[in-house]
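Researcher: Please predict.
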Amino acid sequence: MLEGQSILVTGASGGIGAAIVKQLAAEGARPIIHYGRDKAGAQALLSEIGGEGWIVQADLSSDEGPFELWERSLAAAAGRIHALVNNAGIRTEISIEASRLEWKSAWQREFQINFFAAADLCKEAIRHFKANGGGRIVNMASRAGQRGYSADAMPYGSAKAALVNLTKSIARSFGADGVTAVAIAPGWVRTDMAEEFIASHGKAAAVADIPIGEMATPSEVAELVAFVLRRGQVSLNGATLDVNGGSYIR
């Protein structure tokens, strides 16, 4: 269980992030609920967990946003954060036929939110954890970062692959300091993004390469995040945990 732990969850106001917050709260943690624009969603989520946590706003698409988020989160949690869950992410579609400007803009925005912001938060978290007896990092990667992705979504797969490598580097470099890092790599998860795909292409297309014939649910991912953060799971340091129904097996 996670009693007494203050845990920062980015992109926490909906989908997988909200499920993570609810699971962490159910196990005794006090989540720090990050949101970019959906203040009402963040406030509703805080109410749903009985007010046992905090909400913090920050724009992860800006250079200073991740650092501002860490500072505001530390202030909210009275100077001690025990774990960081880098969950915030976007998925951009861009064709190789796009203009140079559109192409560069899509890649830069995707990497800023999906990778650079996470790296900046990891930097601050590692320094904080080293000075305060250790801590945990969970980076939400993707099946796409391991097996590659579709032609129109290459920035997403590439950024997630970088996030997996960052996780491994942290695990190897700072484990001796009591800082552990784990990546979780879902395939399709039943979120708004998945629902949009289903609306356009049908469920059969979405689950065609998933042997169990179903997408993961946000609660499945959330349960795994909470498990990884338990004090007894220190030896998971450096792991990439797949949640894809057998659609990619390493």
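Model: The first helix runs from residue 15 to 26.
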